[in-house]
Design a protein that fits this description.
Radius of gyration: 30 Å
CATH architecture of the largest domain: 3-Layer(bba) Sandwich
Structural class: alpha/beta
CATH superfamily of the largest domain: FAD/NAD(P)-binding domain
Bound molecules: flavin-adenine dinucleotide, nicotinamide-adenine-dinucleotide
Shape: globular
Number of helices: 16
CATH class of the largest domain: Alpha Beta
Helix content: 25-40%
Distance between the termini: 75 Å
Length: 546
């Protein structure tokens, strides 16, 4: 009779596994499912058939017939690259390899679909990686570093102040773009997603024409379903001659190769404000022409005011409620005439007044679709267009026109396409504006809560009082938490200051988890940190409640 000793329970489990494995091998099922079976079946010490069995480890012999098969249930690889049951070459085609297209393609591939991505550029990444988010943020970072360097007395003594050519600071941005393209190219490769380069247009609901360029002619492919993720491009009114070397939009500005002293930025949306920060940081004088009566009027009013104040401090001349009448271009300058009668002379103009969806070249008539006047497509809650097998996501559907949301929308569109039951359309998106300093927010503004007659209260933390902010030399900045004065539910968070776009995510997570303001008071924050602003703001707000 065997004796029970330390580890007996383990030996029982192993013994049980052994016997189950033998049975499993006979019917060809996989070892891993056996292991999970073992965990579910507790072994009783009094089981007499096991008591006589000695403990021994599971020995693997390459000479026996045990083989771990790929179709064990752990992976769907075996199903990948097999078409669904239909007559077309591909289960799905994704038109556009920006964030929306990439996310859609990844989700489709992971769901076992045969997918092809078509993009007009010779590299993946979309406008986001080539001319939008990535180069502008990398450029901003270089300018931010330059500003800090100039401000720091350790480095700035004896430093000649000169205007830095945009092209010079763009060197770093180009490197980041290249790295991003490499990273995203690998994603497609690793997931065995075919990528074709050329301009796509629809022949009909199941056929795509691809113009290959470079005299290579064209090809046609057939597909069961499609996702349109063609993104957007700067809106170019006929009023301006964009071929002139002093007239730029946000794509063309990345090619500017001369130094200017003054620049007009027409359009004070997100792009206009971000570039106003970049150009003043480079030492240029900026005239920022705003069609509205305040900057980024959808933001918290105090934050919009703080941005205007800081812009003025840094030499941006903000001109509100103005509209273009005409632009004259000369070899050595441009002159902007405004409807108010003003005229502004400058070295160049950056037009940043909105974007249009890239739908013209898609031959939408071929599939019975029509875009709106801004080239955007209408979709339902599942990202399906009015044509049953055609979906759309990203900038081409309009709101919110952000890379962050485009990625989620693309993934969700594909999830709905493959019938995922838990897919949810994108609804709450944080704002992240990379001016210097940054702005970020989530939830409602004071104006919205006042209009809705919600009894809210405000908690504030000014960065200049935080130890971490003082250490890193942060001069301006504020975190505002708006909360319901009775339930303490967090209703909105608004942040102005460097790292705002990171700081906001702490609040976003807390809101999403359903915690109220007390979370920030009952949680110990690292010290010194910028995150500590949440505790300071929460206490400040609670002190107002009576
Ligand atoms: C200057 C600037 C800064 C920005 N900064 C930010 C930021 O900081 N944060 C943020 O979240 N968002 C930012 N955005 C917005 C962000 O870039 C867009 O929301 C994002 O690129 C949209 O992604 P998308 O997948 O819809 O399309 P896109 O990135 O526009 O990609 C679409 C792709 O489709 C291709 N395509 C178009 N038509 C065809 C066709 N007929 N056939 C084949 N291919 C075609 C294009 O070549 C392109 O590669 C910024 C935008 C700009 C312009
Ligand atoms: N940090 C960021 O998140 C970030 C940075 C830059 C750009 N973006 C995205 O890029 C988009 C474009 O930014 P923007 O600053 O150029 O413009 P915007 O969308 O903020 O609009 C600026 C102005 O142009 C008008 N407009 C927009 N599209 C138009 C069109 N097709 N025809 C005529 N007028 C039009 C608008 O009504 C507005 O008055 C934004 O929607 C923004 O989401 C985001």
């Amino acid at each position: 009779m065997s004796k029970k000793r330390k580890g007996d329970e383990t030996s029982d489990i192993n013994d049980d596994k052994q016997s189950t494995q033998t049975a499993a091998n006979e019917i060809g099922s996989a070892a891993p499912s056996v292991l999970s079976e073992v965990k579910k079946t507790p072994v009783k010490a009094s089981d007499s058939s096991l008591e006589d069995t000695l403990f021994h480890p599971n020995l693997i012999s390459p000479l026996d017939n045990d083989r771990i098969r790929i179709n064990s249930g752990f992976t769907r690889d075996s199903e990948r690259l097999k078409n669904d049951n239909h007559e077309y070459e591909y289960d799905a085609v994704v038109v556009g390899a920006g964030p929306a297209g990439e996310a859609a393609a990844m989700k489709l591939a992971k769901s076992g679909k045969k997918v092809v991505v078509v993009d007009a550029r010779s590299q993946v990444g979309g406008n986001s990686a080539h001319v939008g988010t990535i180069p502008s943020k990398a450029l901003r970072q270089s300018v931010f570093n330059l500003i800090n360097y100039r401000r720091d007395p350790l480095f700035s003594q004896g430093l000649d102040y000169y205007q830095v050519p945009l092209n010079k600071v763009l060197t770093k941005a180009r490197k980041v773009v290249r790295n991003q393209v490499d990273t995203h190219t690998r994603f497609y490769e690793r997931n065995q997603i075919e990528v074709r380069h050329g301009w796509a247009s629809f022949v009909d609901n199941h056929t795509l024409h691809i113009e290959l360029g470079d005299g290579l002619g064209f090809e046609t492919i057939t597909f069961n379903k499609a996702i349109i993720t063609v993104g957007s491009r700067p809106y170019r009114p006929d009023l301006l001659d964009f071929d002139h070397p002093r007239v730029f939009d946000s794509d063309k500005i990345l090619q500017m190769d001369y130094v200017v002293k003054k620049i007009i930025i027409y359009g004070a949306g997100v792009i206009g404000c971000e570039y106003a920060s970049i150009f003043t940081g480079l030492g240029y004088k900026v005239d920022l022409i705003n069609n509205h009566d305040s900057l980024l009027s959808y933001l918290d009013k105090e934050i919009s005011d703080a941005l205007s104040h800081d812009f003025r401090q840094f030499g941006v001349l903000v001109r509100n409620n103005e509209e273009i009448e005409k632009l004259e271009t000369y070899d050595d300058c441009v002159i902007l005439y405004l409807k108010s009668g003003k005229k502004i002379k400058s070295d160049a103009i950056l037009w940043s007044n909105g974007r249009s969806g890239n739908t013209e070249s898609l031959n939408l008539e071929g599939i019975g679709l029509k875009a709106n006047s801004r080239g955007q497509l209408k979709v339902d809650d599942t990202y399906r267009t009015e044509v049953e097998n055609i979906y759309a996501a990203g900038d081409v559907i309009g709101w919110p026109s952000l890379a962050s949301a485009a990625y989620d929308q693309g993934r969700c569109a594909a999830a709905f396409m493959v019938g995922d039951e838990d897919a949810e359309p994108v609804s709450s998106v944080p704002t992240g504006i990379y001016t210097i300093p940054e702005i970020s927010s989530i939830g409602k503004t004071e104006q919205e809560l006042t209009d809705e007659k919600v009894p809210y209260e405000v908690g504030q933390a000014f960065f200049k009082h935080l130890a971490r902010a003082q250490i890193i030399g942060e001069r301006s900045g504020v975190l505002k938490i708006l909360f319901h004065r009775e339930t303490l539910e967090i209703l909105g968070i608004h942040c102005y200051g460097n790292h705002a776009s990171e700081i906001i995510h702490i609040g976003q997570a807390v809101m999403k988890c359903g915690h109220n303001l007390e979370y920030f008071v009952n949680t110990t924050f690292n010290y010194p940190t910028m995150a500590e602003a949440y505790r300071v703001a929460a206490l400040n707000g609670l002190n107002r409640v009576f």
